[in-house]
């Protein structure tokens, strides 16, 4: 059985939704980031960087990083494109989300990762807000005339929902992003998404 280590509202919510969509029995273990559970010796054996998500595979071995976890789960549950070109495009988007969108947001919430000069935090956060907002606008443009980010519903869509929720949390004008908001509304119609949002206590 697969086991997901997640934190409410964190980027791990994408994998949580995909597992819920899969319909297979799985375990979900909440990691209390505020209490620093991610830095405990026991958890660092699962995820050496002390982050969520981490996924224990069927053999009990951990898999970390959204870039690996989401394609793995997507292939397991038919939420990853079969066609080689579409799969490459999906991987390209997972890479953009993990390597550009997520770190842009980290500049807002975790400025201490980027400088020891606390006086510089506001400027780092200001630039993070702008860059993150630009990323959300880019996602909105990619969704023009489309129902889902790939040809059909895939792991990309719950991953995009994470950033929409973060935009709301940061009080960015995400409602103005028409295509992205429509994607969010389509996602909210899915029972698996509803169950995970309720379990994690996330409002979008
Ligand atoms: N590159 C990692 C990033 C994971 C990550 O930064 N997760 C955040 C939550 S969204 C975390 O665990 N933060 C805890 C901390 O920084 O102490 C991935 O995409 O899996």
Topology (SSEs and partners):
Elements: E1 2-6, H1 13-22, E2 26-30, H2 41-46, E3 54-56, E4 62-64, H3 66-76, H4 84-109, H5 121-142, H6 156-169, H7 178-188, H8 191-200
Parallel strand pairs: 1-2
Antiparallel strand pairs: 1-3, 3-4
Helix pairs in contact: 1-3, 1-6, 1-8, 3-4, 4-5, 4-6, 5-6, 5-7, 6-7
Bound molecules: glutathione.
Quick structural summary:
With 204 residues, the chain is α+β, with helices and mostly antiparallel strands. The chain is built from eight helices and four strands; from the N terminus they run βαβαββαααααα. A four-stranded mixed beta sheet has the order 2-1-3-4, covered by helices on one side.
Helical proportion?
A: 40-55%
- The CATH level-2 architecture of the largest domain is identified as Up-down Bundle
Q: Biggest β-sheet: count, sense, barrel?
A: 4 strands, mixed
**In what order do the strands lie side by side in the largest sheet?**
2-1-3-4
Just give the CATH class of the largest domain: Mainly Alpha
Number of helices: 8
Instruction: Report the strand count.
Output: 4
Beta content comes to: 5-15%
Q: What is the N-to-C succession of helices and strands?
A: EHEHEEHHHHHH
- What molecules are bound to this protein? glutathione
> Which fold does the CATH topology of the largest domain refer to?
Glutathione S-transferase Yfyf (Class Pi), Chain A, domain 2
Counting structural domains, the number is: 2
Low-confidence runs (pLDDT<50, min 5 residues)? none
Report Rg: 17 Å
General shape: globular
Average pLDDT, rounded to a whole number, is 98
